[in-house]
Amino acid sequence: MTTANIEIDNEAAGPGPEDQERLDEEIFRDLVSVELSAEQRARLVAPPAVHPRQRAVLAVHWHPEWIPIELTMARLAASYPNRQNQLIIPTQHNELLCLGELAGVEIDCYSSGFNRKVQLLLHMRAEAVERADVLRSMLSHTFKYRGGQLWEFIDSIVEPAWDARMQEAAAETGANDEVVAFVRDCAARLRALLADHESDVPPMMIKNKLVSEFIAAQRPWRPERMISRALLLAKAVKQIVKREFSLQYFYRASEVIEEARGLGAGVVIPHPEQFWPILLADYDVDGYEVWNPQSREYTEFLIGVLNRQNKSRAHGERRLLVFMGDDTHMSEKAKPPELQDRQKAAREVGLQPAWDDPAIRKALMLAGMDRDRVIDQYRGRLA
To answer: Which positions ≥6 away from 140 have C-beta within 8 Å?
Structure first.
């Protein structure tokens, strides 16, 4: 990152007014750039660990973001040199992407039964994308609507009309007036940059994490404690915005599923701890994600629930499948190591250790599931 090489005393008050605008432009240009250096490309194709014993690779919940898919595939080949059975489908947020004969997407939608936003993973044959005009229109609408959340996020920090959100977040995180003022200043500068350059910024780069990344980029001339507290405050505001973000313009989950099924698509419910009550909704889906790097607590319980549901299904009715999602975001790996979110950066496409956990393997055996069976059965359904 450009600013990582700027040598400024951490205890200094910051750049002077004559330098601030130039530095902000450099930071912003770097944050929204989709260009990769040779060093970044080399880092992206070199996994930190190799898993020679893993012969089955199931990856149906991961996000290429702006990283070329071929780099991810090179990394995956290096990670699992002895793989024999694989099912790999990218699931970009609200954007259909093809990889070979298959395509996938993770779409935001609305569950009216629970009055909350949910997400669905859709997987289909690549040729189905050609006749997916309605689904692509739904995705485009959702993509633009979700992009609007960034503006509400920034306004919640900057605008006096939204001060209640800032006050709530400050009380929750213990942020003092200095931290609040710093976050507001950063958000106001970022909003000005977005207003000046929005037409030049790739749409996929207009997302909530710009706020935290812009704050983190101030590290060369701000104390680390200030940055850490500012990031906590910004995260708390973001959670409030997400909690109160209007669901009015999302499509209903049932509408999305109906359209997906018309295209021959498979449907999987991701994020188990966040969305597991949707199990009660009896949606027409192929399976549920029972493990995710963000959702590990209920894995055995959810496997048991799916097993009981399968036992109660009529003869000939399709069984619910057990999925695990690594939820990898490839752009995190393109950042300089010192600026990466360590937890997110540690995720790897196709790496879901829970499959090999002894206690979870016992639950999987009782349910008649393992990685190879899920790959074969789901691939068959998509065919």
So the answer is: 94
Q: In the beta sheet, which residues pair with residue 288?
A: 269, 322
Which helix or strand (DSSP H or E) is residue 4 part of?
A: none
Contact of 184 with 157, CB cutoff 8 Å: yes
Tokens of 71: 């780099």
Give the type of residue at 68.
P
Strand stretches in the chain, DSSP E: 56-59, 62-63, 85-88, 97-99, 102-111, 116-125, 266-269, 287-291, 321-324, 328-329
Residues 6+ apart with CB under 8 A from 90: 62, 63, 64, 69, 72, 97, 99, 104
Letter for the amino acid at 371? Answer: R
> Are 268 and 123 contacting, i.e. CB atoms less than 8 angstroms apart?
yes
Q: Does the pLDDT of residue 273 top 80, yes or no? A: no
Supply the pTM of this predicted model.
0.89
Give residue-wise pLDDT tens across range 226-238.
Answer: 999 999 999 999 9
Paired tokens of 322: 């057990």
Cβ atoms 191, 154 nearer than 8 A: yes
Check if the beta carbon of residue 38 is closer than 8 Å to that of residue 329.
Answer: no
Angle, alpha carbons 145-149-150 (nearest 5°): 125
* Residue type at 221 in one-letter notation: W
Q: Within 13 Å of residue 264, how many CA atoms lie on the same side as its CB?
A: 15
Q: What DSSP line would sit under 189-242, residue for residue? A: HHHHHHHHHGGGS-GGG-STHHHHHHHHTTGGGS-HHHHHHHHHHHHHHHHHHH
For residue 182, give the nearest of 208, 221, 139, 209 by alpha carbon.
221
Residue 287 β-bridge partners: 268, 321
Residues 102, 108, 110, 113, Cα dihedral to 10°: 60
Residue carrying structure tokens 């966040």: 274
292 secondary structure, DSSP code: B
The overall longest dimension of the chain from CA atoms, in Å, is 74
Amino acid 225 reads R
pLDDT digits (tens, 9 = 90+) for 143-166: 988 888 999 999 999 999 999 999
Kindly state the tokens that stand for 181: 């003022």
Q: 323 with 289: CB under 8 angstroms?
A: yes
Which helix (H) or strand (E) element contains residue 371? helix 371-382
